[in-house]
Amino acid sequence: MGDKNVVIITGGAMGIGRAIADRFAKDGSAVVIADVSGATEAAAEIAATGAQALGVTCDISDPASCSAMADATVTAFGRIDTLVNNAGLYSTLKLTEFKDITTEEWQRVLNVNVMGQALVTAAVLPTMQSQGSGAIVNMSSGTPFKGVPYLLHYVASKGAINAMTKALAKELGSAGIRVNGVAPGFTMSDGVKANPHQIEKLKDISVQARVIARDQLPEDVVGAVVFLASRDAAFMTGQTLVVDGGAYFH
Do you know which PROSITE patterns this protein is assigned to (predicted)? Predict the structure, then answer.
């Protein structure tokens, strides 16, 4: 990696993604906010602190949009050192019995949560391979480890991300690219707060299951992401760290 660490955060305009972007910027990285909306505004706010930041409107389910975002990053900063695959569908999903989840809803969730991460990774991969280095951090969820009902399409999508993390780590290790994951618990992000149905159904159950019995905040997730992207984790790959206040041990 060069002196300036260049980090792409998908879904970085708000919530956990924004908290991650703020921390990388504070630590001196150049950050790229890739989001379907609000990316330019978020990047401007970060740049106002004196950090280097670029906002790119990006639909992670669209291959052309992902490629354009990666190209814009290289044009602006010359390299891509870290990708945080954070964007995905969750807070707007309705808790639904398995038998009532439609085929269209299954496809929508898998297209964004699984294919979206795959497409963004594919878009940045040529640059990382040419550098001979890179760190990818896939945002997963604690739900596949615990088995959470009424969100089977979401749980399945995040289980797929856990599997992809391991397989990609094997595939890309020889190119000097590390692939790890972070699996948060139920987090009081902006998106969750904007959808009270999630809080009503899941918050109390989630908090009661934790050893650290309080709300999980976006800032609680940031340290694990930054660590996995850093030189301190240079000999770690294929791992998924569960950050959920001790609700699940594995």
Answer: ADH_SHORT
